[in-house]
Amino acid sequence: MSILVGAVLLVATLFLARWFIHVDTETRAKAAKIGLAIVVVLAFVLIFFGLRLPFVITGLFVLIPFLPYFFQQETQELSKSAVSTHMTLEEARQILGVKARDTEEEILKAYRRIIQKVHPDKGGSAYLAAKVNHAKDVLLKN
Question: Which residue ranges does the record assign to the J domain (predicted)?
């Protein structure tokens, strides 16, 4: 019986992991928070009904790889709100290192070059990436 339960849990975990990888970050963060709440409630229920504590603690350690997703959404929202809503054309040009006479293509080229260095996925800062994105938007709108 326990082998069957283990096999079902393993298959369910594999399907959930596959889904988890392919969804957008906002959905992933929400799902991770809900999953953590469910696991914590289950842990307390299992402890209450007499399951040994080491098994529950071991089960909670399985969640460690997913911890960054619990805080990812707040970080993105913070970086969006931290960026000033008003940026002058001169500030935007300084951020991207372009001149007033540069074309849209040159602005995009400078944007791509800089965003590759400051993007959070490449080890950069979410705040800097948001500033660079905002500078590009300001320049392309004008």
Answer: 91-142
